[in-house]
Amino acid sequence: MSESAPTMYAVASGDRLKTLMERTGTGEAITSRELATAAGVAHGTIGALMSGAQLTVPEDKARAITAALGVELKVLFIRAERVGRTFVPVEREAAV
Asked: Smallest Cα–Cα separation from 77: which of 89, 95, 69, 87?
């Protein structure tokens, strides 16, 4: 039995991630190292998402990051699907 690939999520915006880190759901700021530790992901992953060097993460990491920030998944991430060798957002970001 083959395992299916994890659902991937694309970060909506590195700037949005930075803004959410400045004021988490608790109202407190969090550093990239603190966020990485709280979410159980590599510090480099957080930095790469902020800079745009990395656009997608598996669902479990996306959920861990948003939980550590105290926000809903859709506030920061958009579900992505593979098209060839690239992941593209499945849905467009809603106008705010």
From this structure: 89
Residue 79 · residue 28 · CB < 8 Å = no
pLDDT tens-digit readout, 39-90? 999 999 999 999 999 989 999 999 999 999 999 999 999 988 765 555 555 5
DSSP per-residue codes, 32-95: HHHHHHHHTS-HHHHHHHHHTS--EEEHHHHHHHHHHHTS-HHHHEEEEEEETTEEEESSPPPP
Q: How many CB atoms lie within 10 A of CB 89?
A: 16
CA gap 11, 79 in Å, rounded: 9
Structure tokens at 91: 């849905």
Distance CA 92, CA 47 (A): 24
Widest distance between CA atoms in the chain: 46
